[in-house]
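Writing this down once: the sequence line spells out the residues, with the fold written below as integer tokens. This is how one looks:
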Amino acid sequence: MASHKLTINLSDNMIEEIERYKKSAHKHNIEEAVTELINYALSLPLYFKIFDWEKAEDEADKEIAAGKTKSFDTVEDLISDLKR
């Protein structure tokens, strides 16, 4: 397989997240971690690639602010509510 060099600029926050992933996934170096993360991102189903996550987050924030949420004391209560 051919190999190519790619240079990208990443924010400090992104580097910190990659370093956390590298540690948790027991990768030997940041290149290995980035390669695995890119492969994973490229393998996601199209639905997740084109979904408007920012819009969904904004809608969720509005629902929460409007008090349109429910709380449950137990998992059984949650499941019971879902079955209604």
About this structure: The mean pLDDT is 94. The chain has two domains: 9-50, 52-84.
